[in-house]
Amino acid sequence: MTMDLLLFHSPTADRNTLGMEGASRLAEVLSDRISVAPIHIGESGPLLHGDWHRQLMNTRPVLRQLGNTLSDTLDHDRFPITVLPRCAAALGTLPVIARHHPDAILLWLDAHGDLNTPRNSESGYLGGMVVSAAAGQWNSGLGTGWSLDNIILAGARALDPCERQLIDAGAPKHVPPGTDFVERLLAMLGDVACYIHLDCDVLEPGHVPTEYACPGGITLETLSTLFRHLSRNQQILGIQVAEFESRRQETSPLFDPSPLASTLLAACPIHRGTGP
């Protein structure tokens, strides 16, 4: 299957520029590995100040552009690899996936649930409201399409009370990190096709630079095992990655994204039928 590499590099809910820089560096490595030039959406620019509503108003046009580009990829039966600086950009991608694959599972690999809404969010952080918007819990103006029943929060461990209430009520499903993580997740997923969102903070702190560090995460090796299994079974409809920062701190040396790129490629069609 032909692959498209989408690079979104506009600011959304960024608190620093490390996510935009990290996305560009990761896309560069992926491009070299798969010999596919990235499709650029948006432009790097100054951080967007103000509350979540102002950030959303400012980014909605370019997020629509991101969604349209992804839709074109899917219309042409190409496998999308989408690199995002921040999870907030998924407001533009998730409704498109739901429209093209209404029966799919959203596999949300993230330390957080991102199920807050403008009404109950204590932080008012736009990136923490992405899954709830995709599931129609509030109106982002960018679309919905996902049922909570078709969402799995995988690796989540920093959950707010309102998110735990939803999980306790039965949807979305939750697979916490820990022993037999891959086996538990595969058992819950079954043989249904899935779209993968990877927030790098699902990883144990120290694997890659991220804005948030949440102890108790999973490893790159665990992710690779999961991705290889799903890819061999042709269950992956596409993958997007967010929250990889280029450096551990503003003044730190650049971090090599190659190990993360290798893990992502385990989910891609070029690796189907290979590996242990």
UniProtKB/TrEMBL annotation:
Superkingdom of the organism of origin: Bacteria
Family recorded in the similarity comment: Belongs to the arginase family.
PANTHER family in the record: ARGINASE
Alphabetical UniProt keywords: Hydrolase, Manganese, Metal-binding
Record GO terms (molecular function): arginase activity; manganese ion binding
InterPro entries associated with the record: Ureohydrolase, Ureohydrolase_dom_sf
One term under GO cellular component: cytosol
UniProt keyword Lipid biosynthesis, yes or no: no
Organism taxonomic ancestry: Bacteria, Pseudomonadati, Pseudomonadota, Gammaproteobacteria, Oceanospirillales
Keyword Hydrolase belongs to the record: yes
Pfam families membership: Arginase (PF00491)
Full protein name: Arginase
